[in-house]
Amino acid sequence: MNTQEIINEQVTTNHIVLYMKGTPESPQCGFSAHAVKILNACGENNIFAIDVLSNPEIRQGIKEYSNWPTIPQLYINGSFIGGSDIVDEMYKNGELQKLIKQ
32 and 72 in contact (C-beta within 8 Å)? Predict the structure, then answer.
């Protein structure tokens, strides 16, 4: 499988996928840490997380897949949600919690 096929499989076979710098237990940037914190605040601890720092092909590939230039990137039920700022805004208005429960 090529990188795009791997990414597509990851986002379509897992409920919540977070492409991040580091891991949920040890985030390597503040934006990734914030995204994990928000997901945990929503009661979601079953996050399929991919550390883009350990895989340069995925790091570049996810940017092409989503047409979004930054990391972290959150996917729920196969759909691209956004980066840290969008996730934060959706959490504050209650929209993220609804998506997670679907």
Answer: yes
